[in-house]
Design brief:
With about 220 residues, the chain is of the alpha/beta class. It has helices spanning about 5-10, 15-35, 55-70, 75-80, 95-105, 125-135, 145-150, 200-210; strands spanning about 40-45, 80-85, 115-120, 165, 185-190. The strands form 2 sheets. It has a 3-stranded parallel sheet with strand order 1-3-2, sandwiched between helices. It has a two-stranded parallel sheet with strand order 4-5. Strand 2, helix 5 (about 95-105) and strand 3 form a beta-alpha-beta unit. It binds 3-methylbut-3-enyl trihydrogen diphosphate (IPE) and magnesium ion. Magnesium ion (MG) binds near residues 2 and 168. This is Isoprenyl transferase. Homodimer.
Amino acid sequence: MDGNGRWAKNRNLPRTNGHLEGLKRAKEIAKAAADMGIKYLTLYVFSTENWKRTQQEVGFLMGLIHTHLRQELKFYKENNIRVRLLGDITGLPSDIQTDITAAQNDTRVFNGLTLSLAINYGGRDEIVRAVKKIVDSGCKSDAINDAFISEKMDIPELPDADLLIRTGGEKRLSNFLMWHAAYAELVFTDTLWPDYFEKEFIINIEEFQKRSRRFGAVPV
Ligand code: IPE
Ligand code: MG
């Protein structure tokens, strides 16, 4: 979800207004995904690198995450959405840790869409933490394969990503889902996140459906 700051700047508004508008789109896209029957949607909310932003912006984003998680149980219930955290919870402020734990517990029975919120998330950081878990478990190297490593990631049952959409014009992954996106189809759009509506989401999914996915094989 990239482009909140530029969206606000284009309107001579503070960056924080872009984040407020971006949150509205995040909810709309999550609802659209749930309505379509998509089982997993992962939103890149706050990266391990985003701490480099000003204290004011980081504080605003944490506040937004806090109020959202506190107030949106009704939204998740209505749309049958289960919330999961992707990222290092130990590096988050304690109130956010409490909010995340509560949101995960309160939504655990909802079985439509699993909405993974990547907060304090870095793809490499997730892999580093998985490797630590593996080493600490004292397992033998023979036991290690793809499936074994997947199980040590933040959300063990999170499947490989099929489609990765980046808004805001940059054409890079920025440390997102380094493990799960190995064979993801990539879509890059110049649309700034607060301007990314359901209509474009559907267009991007239709584009994905036209892609020929061979996973390295030769088509027969
Ligand atoms: C993405 O928008 C939102 C978050 C990282 C939370 P940006 O804040 O990166 O917006 P730009 O890239 O400055 O426009
Ligand atoms: Mg950005």
